Amino acid sequence: MASRTRWLAVAAVGVAVLVALFVWRGCRDGQMEADAPQIFGAGSVPVVSPELAVSDALVRGTVHPDYTDWSCILECREPEGCHAEVQLTIAYLSQGSEVSIKLGGRLDAEMGETMRLGRVQRPPTGVDEVTNVTLEVTTTYRPGGPRPTPRI
Question: DSSP 3-state assignment of 63?
Fold first, then answer.
């Protein structure tokens, strides 16, 4: 009888260890899912760009725990190419509120080439929907000529 009680005790401890491992693993996996980056995207967003001919925008991003990483891809549609300093404004909805972010940079592409503007945003902001993209040219320059001096 003592042998049977001993085996039952060993089996009970084994079951308790297995349950503890499953619970611990479930908590750990849940933590990993909560910390996983959230990816968002909007393809073919019309771009309001009166000064520079570009394609619709492909807006993508990733919301990390400490920041949101933005990326906007455009194609140059200017016959002479896209050679300009620009400011891109992306309007979007975040938790029902209208918000916008500005991405600035230098475009230097020939007609048909792909261009990318990107930026990190802190603090992180969730993105429900991209509603509007506007491109403003701040400075132009000649292809093959000297580039404008960066502003400090």
Answer: strand
Domain region containing 90: 38-140
pLDDT in tens, 107-137: 999 999 999 999 999 999 999 999 999 999 9
Of 76, 24, 33, 28, residue with least CA distance to 52: 76
CATH number at residue 89: 2.60.40
Strand partners of residue 134:
48, 89
Calculate mean pLDDT across residues 140-152. Answer: 65
Q: Is pLDDT at 32 greater than 60 in this prediction?
A: no
Tokens standing for residue 63: 């919301």
Same domain flag for 61 and 103: yes
Same domain, 132 and 99: yes
- By DSSP bridging, strand 47-48 and strand 129-140 are parallel
